[in-house]
Amino acid sequence: MDATVFAVDLERASSLAGISYDELVDGIRGDRHSTLQAVVLESEADGDWTGASALAAYVLTSGKTTFYGVPYALQQLQRRTILEHALSQLLLAGITRVVLAVSANQPEVRAHVEQSPVAACLHLEYLELPPSVLESVPETILAGRHLLSGPFLIHAPDRVFDKDVIERFLAFYQTTHSVCMLSETRMDMAQRMHSTTVRVQVASPRANGSTNVRIGRDLASYNGVDAGLYIVSPKIFVVLENLLHGAGALSLPEALAFGFRSLKVMPTTEHCNWFGVDSDDELLHAVEFNLAATLSPFTFPALLSPQKPRKSVLLSVGSSPSSHASETARGAFQGFVVDVPTTRVTATSPLLPRLSLKVHECALATHVTSSPHNELSVSIPLPEVASPTTSSPSKSAFLIQQSTASNFVLAVPDGPMRRRSQLPSDVVDVALEATTGDGAIAVRLTVQKQVPRIGYLILLTALLSVSAQGAALQTLSGISPFLKMFWRAFGSSIVFSILAVISVVHDGWPTLPSPRQALFEAIVCILSYLTYNATFFWALDHTSVGHAYIFSNCHSVLIVFGKCFLGQPVAALESSGAILGALGGALTTMDSDAASSPTSLSRVIEPTLRGDVVALAGAIGGVFYLVNAKVLREKLGVWVFVAYLFTTAWVLILPLLCALGVEFDVSTDPRIGLFGWVHHFGTEVLIVVVCSGLGTMGFISAMRYFPPLVISVTMLLEPIVATLFSLLSGTADVPHALTIVGGLTVILGTLLVVYSTRKSTEHIDVTAAMLSTVPETKQPRNATKRPSYYGTMSQVKS
């Protein structure tokens, strides 16, 4: 039974979905999973292949054993095993790259070859397959399709061909430039072969030089039999795939005759030296006549360049890893399997998404077998991944579809244990869905989120903390608002830089998949943050505290309007909240013309239209700051991002002070000194610890659960709290009626937007996370591109 397998890069999928790798895996697992066992093995490496022949050899073995349980491949003749004799003759004929298909149930075969001197002279690649696959030569060849590019030689199992026969066969191929096979025409030798051996009838050449070749097991008239040596082109994979799904079980020679009209047959001659041991009779004949002594003698030449180790994966058969796997595994890991709903594109259904891939570009042809105990065994080739972040097999999932099934299953190896976030996740469930049709496939994730209670607690704490900032700063009378801004940024930079260093030492430096993009986002973020805060500080000295907060934080309305302008979906409650927010802002603006009381204290700042306009202009910077801050928080982490934010802020404020002509000097002067905050240490501690620590960092932490719009509209609640703090500190009068009504209207709009985002469902196209079977990696000239090794997987159905 065949299956189509697609490899999915989980790291890439989590990045596209905007959630962490752990949240993705935990969400997919859910309550519907079955058990998966797997181990990582060391394999031979890709090296620079500089063999004498441009052909690779695909050497097959069988799972057959002698009466004493010894595999035929390990039967010794002349102190060498059958497999060693076969490999050494290939080496003498100039073939140095060999793909060796061995049974996963006979680890001693591979272990023996690895210890043999001939292995050090060959570039060997091992393909471990279930015995059921090795029983069929066509299926075994299909299993190795990703290891073989270009024409290659197929060496049938349990046979030894002398190097002279191989060289003559290679010359025959060079002459005909066609798919070819070797036919044994000595009938005495043919009669000793197994009764099921395929027969060959080659007619005399016609006048035009062509020959008629008939191949079959039941030919009554024949002049040769299949010897087990072939040279084929990559088209063989297409032919075999079509035959296995159509014409039924055919032997390899029959498939060649069916799929290639230009098939050429090379007959043996009297001096062709080869023998087979695929039956006890043939083995006894080889021993009795000492056929191994008639082979071309071989001595091992100088070793080829050492091979680099590379990893392969074995997703082991059975409910637990095999004993052999546990002995040779370099790293064991577990996983799970879940069902994946599948939708097929029809004439009445929507078209596939724009990012859909052609199946042949990403499918890993494989083999599936059912076994007792309700298990499913799948042979899976590991994709070749260029990215160092996704090279581990435990970070790639396998999307598997059986040929007889309509739905997919997803096999997800659990990745290595990671340092999980101290905050709970808001991801409730993650579902994968595949869409197929017209030879293409698209995959999307459905992510369901629900904000946990701690998310609202963090948001409320940040709101209260930041709201105290205005009252605290207005107690610093007679000091330039930009110098206040510098004091806050400098003090916060010292504290958060220390915490960031501790975070990096403990968790490591954050990995940036695209450093240039992250740098651009960081520059935009800090410039927007500086603009947003500079206008806010200026507005505090030119309008009331309530108006400064309302107009500086109206970026929530701008975000909603921006989503509408860009054609992004906006929920009904979001649009309603935006309308109420705009209405509330208009009402408070009408209060700007209200005359101030002549009995007002001099420290009380009345609303002004000029201050309101500047605060509104700062909201534009707030939009860019919030959008980029959420992205950078995920990439850099909270501590590193906040430290970067405040450090770059005070560095950029210095030239701003010079440009605006603000009086300052490098001293501890309490009014104009850059370090004058030492005379206001209590206020500085309050601003750094409460306003920056709990406020700014609280909002940044809340971005884990809320989109920028929610953070933005929550800031609109600050005027009420800020005005209350200012009243308590004596820096504000009781607000006028219009300000109160407008503020309450804004609060209502804010609550609507927050309520609309308490639960969300996102649909993300993650087709881009599917790994191509033909990776675009740069290779040295004359290097041969070869994908990785196969393994087997077990699904234990619960």
TrEMBL record:
Chain residue ranges for the region called Disordered: 777-798
Keywords tagged on the record: Membrane, Transmembrane, Transmembrane helix
InterPro entries, per the entry: EamA_dom, EmrE-like, Nucleotide-diphossugar_trans
Transmembrane intervals: 454-473, 485-506, 518-540, 609-627, 639-662, 674-697, 709-728, 734-755
Gene Ontology annotations for the cellular component aspect, listed alphabetically: membrane
Domain of life where this protein originates: Eukaryota
Residue ranges of every copy of the EamA domain listed in the record: 454-589
Record has Membrane as a keyword: yes
Protein name per UniProt: EamA domain-containing protein
Organism from which the protein derives: Saprolegnia diclina (strain VS20)
